[in-house]
Amino acid sequence: MEIIKELCLILHSKRLNMKKVVWVVLTVSLLLSSCAKEFNQVYKSSDYQYKYEYAKECFAAGKYARAVSLLQEIIVPAKGSAFAGESLYMLAMAEYLDADYATASETFKRYVSSYPRGQFAELAKFYAGQSLYMDTPEPRLDQSGTVSAIAAFQEYLDLYPDAKMKEVGQQRLMTLQDKLVEKELKSAQLYYDLGSYFGNCTSGGNNYEACIVTAQNALKDYPYSNRREEFALLVMKSKFELAQQSVESKKMQRFQDAEDECYGFINEYPDSKDRKLAENYIEKCKKITKTASDA
Question: What is the pLDDT, as a whole number, of residue 28?
């Protein structure tokens, strides 16, 4: 590594000339060729102790892909040896650091299953969840990976209540749950925005009804979320819009339901910036229900 650094300095030197450029290129090429040749020799070797030691050097040098290639060759033949457990954990960690998160999670789980009392069992359990955490998609996409990551961290905290990484694990759980909440909020908002468009509805369904169900389920599932007011607002607005487009036989009941929802919103969020909207809805609902009852 020091030689390569020196070569880089030469490349940026003001005294650079074509001969030095040629010399640098040839030297670097020879070094790279030599490293590749050495790696291939180790890879083809049947000495698994030798492979293990070389894999450790690759790992320490940040050459994770090479470490993975060697360690994958070691795991089965080295089973039962003094370095078997460490090899498996190092393989998982190399996969993780090489950003192969899905594979890393499975390898960490494999370590915990093979060495439940092993030296790295607690860390492997944490990183099984951390790998899934790193691989979770943005909120608008399918969140099955997020659910799996939550389950992995919950298992970690249940198994190691006094874990070294307890605080990090708890923070990860909160972040992942926030992602699920965001997913539900986006879904509810989409239903509301679609409004009276029926092209996506089946079996007589309604977008406003779908928004209400989605938002109410989220309020039940995430009682401590800081997005509750946003869900409650969508429920209130959807109930009012649903009443507006209802057939006459359902209009009275739905406007009464919308009015009750508005009062509930004001009671729970008296300082909401949307309080005025709730009060306007109440006035409109009262006028319609009064007119209907007087008729």
Answer: 43
CA distance 284 to 237: 13
| Each residue's pLDDT tens digit, 222-280 | 999 999 999 999 999 999 999 998 888 899 999 999 999 999 999 999 999 999 999 99
Residue 31 CB partners (closer than 8 Å, separation 6+): 3, 4
Q: What is the dihedral of CA 246, 247, 253, 258, to 10 degrees?
A: 10
Determine the Cα–Cα distance for residues 128 and 172; give it in Å rounded to an integer: 13
Is the CA virtual torsion 104, 109, 114, 115 positive or negative?
Answer: positive
**228/18 Cα distance (integer angstroms):** 68
AA identity, residue 81: S
Digit-coded pLDDT (tens) for 76-97:
998 889 999 999 999 999 999 9
Contact 148, 164 (CB under 8 A): no
> Based on the number of CB atoms within 10 Å of its own CB, is 133 exposed (0-12), middle (13-18) or buried (19 or more)?
buried
